[in-house]
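Researcher: I'd like a structural prediction for the single chain below. Treat it as a standalone chain; there are no partners to consider.
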Amino acid sequence: MNMTQLFEKKKQGKELTQAEIKYFVEGYTTGSIPDYQASSLLMAIRLLGMTDEETFYLTKAMIESGDVIDLTSIDGFKIDKHSTGGVGDKVTLIVTPVIAALGIPVAKFSGKGLGITGGTIDKLESIRGFKTELSSQEFIDNVNKHKIAVAGQTGNLVPADKKLYALRDVTGTVDSIPLIAASIMSKKIASGADGIVLDVKCGSGAFMKTEEEAKKLADAMTAIGEKLGRKVVAHISDMDNPLGKMIGNKLEVAEAHSLLSGRMGETHEDLLEECIIISSLMYQVAAGVNEAAATAAVKRVLADGSAVAKFEEFIAAQGGDLADIVQNDTANNVAVKAATNGVVETINALLIGEASVELGAGRLTKESALDYDAGIQLVAKKGDAVKTGETIAYLYSNREINGETINKVQNAYTIA
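Model: Treating it as a single chain, here is the predicted structure.
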C-alpha cells in the first residue's frame, strides 16, 4: 500500500477501505507521508467527496491518532455543544452556564479562532487572569464542583486533525463536507462527552453558504456520532447576519454577561432566541425531557439569576477577574454613519467579519497577535429604521482605523 495508489483510486471515484484511510491518517500524523502527497489526496476528496462509510472511517482513524479523554469520574450525563463558526457567535459563553445552572455537567474543550470566526478560547482569554490550560484533574474537579469547565484542546487530542487542518487551510480544501465532519466529530468524540448538540451555521458568514449544504453537514456529523455511541442532535441557524450586537473578543464576553444579567438593551433578541434554542436542545438531550419542559427550564434560570451567577462562578473558578468584563477600552474608536434613510434589510456577516479581523479582533494566520479589545458594535440591527448620517456601528481598535475598514462596515449594511 502506498499514497500513489490511494489518490489514484480516489481520483477514479472509487471508495477507500478502512485500512487505506487508517494508513493515510497514521502516516501523515507521524510524518512518513509528506505534505505534497497528503494534499493530493485531500484535493481528490474535496473534488469527489467521500461516502458515509469513508467519512466514518476517517473520523475513527483521527480519533485513534491521539488521546481520548476519560470523563467517567464526572457524575451525570456530560453534554457538549459545537458551532461550525460564525460572526458574533458567543453562544457557548451563554448556554454553558445556563445548562450548568440546571445541574447538567458541561465539560467543554474549545479552540482558538482563525479568520472571521472567533474562537471561544480567545474570548475567554480576553478576561484578565482566565486560565484555559487545565490539567485533567483540574478540569474534572471543576466540572464536579461547579458543573462547568471550558478548556483549550490538549496537546495530544486528535493530533491528526491539527496537522490535516493546517494543510487544508493552505491548499484550498477547507470547504469539504466529509473533511469538516471528520474534523469536528473526531474532536467532539475524543473529548469524552455523552451527548453533543451541533449548531450548524449557514449563510454569508459561515463555511456552509446554503441551507442544503448545512443540512448535508449536519446529517453527516449526526450519523458519525450515532455510530460511535453518542446522543447527537443538530440545529441549523442563520449566519447571513452577525449574531447579537458585538463582534470581538472582550466585547462578546461583555455582551454574554449582559444577556445573562437580563440587560437586553446591551444585546439583541436574535442572540437570546438562538441561546434559548441551543440550551433547550442540550437540556433535552441530557435530561430526556420534551421541548416545552426544556425551554421552560432554560427561561427560568435566565430569569431568576442563577444562570448569570453560574457564569460568574465559572469565570472566577478558572482565575478570571470579573471586574475585567467591560465592553470597551481601546485607544481608537470610530462611528460609522448610515449612507441613506430607510430600514436595515440585512448586514453582511462576511464583510463585518473581515472588518473585525482588520481591526485586530481575528487572526489572518495562526501566529497573528490578537487585540482583545478590538471589535465592532452594531448599533443598528436588521429591521431597525435609520436616518442618513445616523450612527449604525462603532469600530474599536488599538490600531489606527483606516477608511477602507470604515467603508467595509458601511457597505455591509443594506438599507432599503
